[in-house]
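Sample pair:
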Amino acid sequence: MYDSTKKSGKTTASNVNAWIIETYDQASNSTKETATATADWFNNAYEQAKDAGETTAANTRDWLIEDVRKMGSWEYKTITIESEDPGAAIEELNKLGAERWECFWVEKQDDKKVFYLKKAGRSFLCQLPARELLHLLPLLDKDKPVE
């Protein structure tokens, strides 16, 4: 590999040992840059969530742990609609649908209908590839245990 890399002009290393060190340094710098960029993105996402009132976490690390717990979780709620007007029910359900609520069951109770709704917990980490998540690990406070 060294010979082909040398012939292609992709390295100025004079021997295999120097080329290995050069390759390692390039990979190390690339990983560090990626980790820093990922951490910056996550810190910004935390600040946005905090400003929007979506978290009470005291710092980015705690928010990261909170966010991991949201992965695959569900929120549930029920609403009761008393109107016989289908248009009113549709309007209300469309509003809730815009908020990511999904109706999964309806029960009739007397002249009312109870709608059971669910929505997936919102996780910012789901937006990152797993490879990028691994870059965050060294940036966490190692002295504080994860609960």
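The chain has a mean pLDDT of 80.
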